[in-house]
């Protein structure tokens, strides 16, 4: 799962209320960019172009692990005049497990369980550390320690929405709308997402069309309104 708000602003000026920051690359991979919008848009365009070349040459989509390495090479190759963007790549590995890769502007990257970047990173990342890694949580007397692991889709969706909703209360550069991309492995049940009453009022979900000959993975886009002031 990877998400981004839609506000593009500079200081106290809102340039547009709908500027997507998250992009579907393949049936298994989604990329989020934040920072200098023009650099971000151009970088996504170059990444998509290389993925298209790869698919034409090999008759298959590039794996997310290989996409991460390709992005690292592209960023490092421009290190003397870098893209002023931070990237987060998320999706499904070839073994069906989920993966998140975070990048700095010159190509350093690592695989993590969760990561926030952008204007509200200092607000969202501690919240994710607490809810996903259970940092600074004390178990009840007699109970065992909290152990990070896989969480239900509905729980993760609630954490993501709550983190952005909280950020809009404290940061003027975050708001307007939230786009959440959910990449599901082949055969994964969608009841947690499409079941009756699963989404909060005002939230909408749509399934995106496959981009190629994938392995049965499905990508959904969930939209949620945020504060507009």
How are the SSEs ordered, and which strands pair?
Layout: E1 2-5, E2 8-10, E3 13-16, E4 22-24, E5 29-35, H1 37-58, H2 64-77, E6 85-92, E7 98-103, E8 109-112, H3 121-132, H4 153-170, E9 177-184, H5 191-194, E10 204-207, E11 218-225
Antiparallel strand pairs: 1-9, 2-3, 4-5, 5-6, 6-7, 7-8, 9-11, 10-11
Helix pairs in contact: 3-4
Protein name: Proteasome subunit beta
Pfam family, one: Proteasome
Main location: nucleus
Characterization of the model:
It comes from Cryptococcus amylolentus CBS 6039. Keywords: Cytoplasm, Nucleus, Proteasome. One of its GO terms (cellular component) is proteasome core complex. It holds the Pfam family Proteasome. InterPro entries: Ntn_hydrolases_N, Proteasome_sua/b, Proteasome_suB-type. With 229 residues, the protein is of the alpha+beta class. It has one domain: 4-Layer Sandwich (Glutamine Phosphoribosylpyrophosphate, subunit 1, domain 1), CATH 3.60.20. It is 31% helix and 26% strand. It contains five helices and eleven strands. The strands form three sheets. The protein has a five-stranded antiparallel β-sheet with strand order 4-5-6-7-8, covered by helices on one side. Strands 1-9-11-10 form a four-stranded antiparallel β-sheet, covered by helices on one side. Helix 3 runs antiparallel to helix 4. The mean pLDDT is 92.
């Amino acid at each position: 799962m990877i998400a981004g708000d839609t506000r593009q602003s500079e200081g106290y000026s809102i340039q547009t209320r709908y500027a997507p920051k998250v992009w579907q690359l393949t049936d298994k991979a989604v990329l989020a960019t934040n920072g200098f919008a023009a650099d971000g848009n151009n970088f996504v365009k170059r990444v998509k172009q290389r993925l298209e070349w790869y698919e034409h040459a090999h008759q298959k989509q590039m794996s997310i692990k290989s996409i991460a390495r390709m992005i690292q090479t592209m960023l490092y190759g421009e290190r003397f005049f870098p893209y002023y963007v931070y990237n987060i790549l998320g999706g499904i590995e070839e073994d069906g497990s989920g993966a998140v890769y975070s990048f700095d502007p010159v190509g350093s990257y690592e695989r993590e369980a969760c990561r926030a970047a952008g204007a509200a990173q200092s607000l969202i990342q501690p919240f994710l550390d607490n809810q996903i890694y259970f940092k600074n949580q004390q178990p009840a007397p007699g109970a065992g320690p909290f152990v990070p692991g896989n969480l239900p889709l509905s729980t993760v969706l609630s954490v993501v929405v709550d983190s952005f909703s909280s950020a809009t209360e404290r940061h003027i550069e975050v708001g307007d709308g939230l786009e959440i991309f959910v990449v599901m492995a082949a055969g994964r049940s969608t009841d947690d997402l499409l079941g009756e009453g699963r989404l909060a009022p005002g939230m909408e979900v749509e399934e995106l069309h496959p981009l190629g000959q994938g392995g049965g993975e499905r990508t959904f886009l969930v939209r949620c309104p945020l504060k507009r002031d």
